[in-house]
Amino acid sequence: xxxxxxxxxxxxxxxxxxxxxxxxxxxxxxxxxxxxxxxxxxxxxxxxxxxxxxxxxxxxxxxxxxxxxxxxxxxxxxxxxxxxxxxxxxxxxxxxxxxxxxxxxxxxxxxxxxxxxxxxxxxxxxxxxxxxxxxxxxxxxxxxxxxxxxxxxxxxxxxxxxxxxxxxxxxxxxxxxxxxxxxxxxxxxxxxxxxxxxxxxxxxxxxxxxxxxxxxxxxxxxxxxxxxxxxxxxxxxxxxxxxxxxxxxxxxxxxxxxxxxxxxxxxxxxxxxxxxxxxxxxxxxxxxxxxxxxxxxxxxxxxxxxxxxxxxxxxxxxxxxxxxxxxxxxxxxxxxxxxxxxxxxxxxxxxxxxxxxxxxxxxxxxxxxxxxxxxxxxxxxxxxxxxxxxxxxxxxxxxxxxxxxxxxxxxxxxxxxxxxxxxxxxxxxxxxxxxxxxxxxxxxxxxxxxxxxxxxxxxxxxxxxxxxxxxxxxxxxxxxxxxxxxxxxxxxxxxxxxxxxxxxxxxxxxxxxxxxxxxxxxxxxxxxxxxxxxxxxxxxxxxxxxxxxxxxxxxxxxxxxxxxxxxxxxxxxxxxxxxxxxxxxxxxxxxxxxxxxxxxxxxxxxxxxxxxxxxx
Length: 616
Known about the structure:
The chain is mostly beta strands and 616 residues long. Helix content is 1%, strand content 50%. The protein has four domains: 11-245, Jelly Rolls, CATH 2.60.120; 251-390, Jelly Rolls (Sandwich); 396-479; 484-616, no CATH class. The protein has one helix and 47 strands. 40% of the residues are buried.
């Protein structure tokens, strides 16, 4: 989640959100201390402190008192607009991000401008998602058309990456409102620039010709509220972040350039040299040059900031480059290749500012490129270069591995458990893919399932392109589990031994069954261990670990995280409801212990078998 500045959304008397007055900080966190930012005609929406939903109970949401979570309690079968939640502010272009939790079988939706719906739905494990599934852009409706043809223009998510009911999911929507001329005539349609669900882009540049079914108004509007559907089931929402793009972008003008030929160093004092060319330009472009290499040039001009606030500059230039505003570095002098970007942020007062861009290139193998993009308070990223100038060459077509059948790929895998941890390279990683679009990575050096994901299988470009570095990348919505040994001997509140120290661990590879599903084998703590992970109902993984003659006091640590919460008998939500661990034998009473600043879920290995499921 982005770090938000202290000047959040403020509410004036009567609950009207004054987003339009908060231009200095584009991002606004909607405070869920009460419902004053919204209007509702029913009492089904409440502010609570926490929410929980059991995967086995239809439409059941339980909560605890407090603030910070928006909960909808609704009995299915009672329909009507009185149950929806409507923001007190209206918007045009907008980015919105939020976390949401669906109850089993529940259905909701986010309507941009009150008219264009992105579905929130319990689509966990569904093989072929449609427009009405989680993240889908709902269809339009024409009652005059014949039966079977009334609904049209619905857009299914590219992938179904929905999590299980009761787990927190994240959605980011970038929306561009329809445009109107001075007479109020629509001149362009609304566009969903992108929809990202659980870290995976499921829509890009989807144009909708008019309001979707159930819209607030029959026709397109320039401004409208955010609506959240509340009459199709129970759900919870938190961490609502708004970027309201209601301001004009900055402008770049009075551009002049000077070019210099030859293999000059980037530190050369150009003021002592005679330029090869000078001139004026409407937009930035490297194409002012006569040669493709051994050159230096500078652009100077005026950047006009319409609103005071933070401005983010992104520069693409082959070789050595920098950017200055008012004579001060915003992007320091640095070398990059033609496909890399430099970034810098500066707080500007409203008004005109001098800008200077420098570029020097002496690498003949690299194509020239120059691009500048800026976003700032109340406006989206804008390009200030010609299209041809920023078309860099040398990008690589991706090398992708699918999993139309059960598939196993060995590679290096870069792994980072959380924001506080250091990235590590797993050198004996085995990634296992399935046609159910559920995949996992196993560390042969520890006998650990370190991550699971839903979506496409692997991007092997880093491993196989050119000389390669041996690594691959997951292509989907990844849930990180951890890279510690499953088995160990825990005592008191001592730190879990994460590696193989003292275990006598020896990997023995894996064997495949008739469906090419692997069983991993190793020795540890004087026992022979087998580890079998399989897909169940296209929804989750079941893991069966068998230990021959387990040592006394041997336990298995099934999960660790910031929190571990018991949802029901045998079902535990891990790491702030990121995923579930479900025990096959509900009679087992696991220990939830706090150690080294986190919580752990431990079970004894007394009968030689550990059987549980990973639901995500």
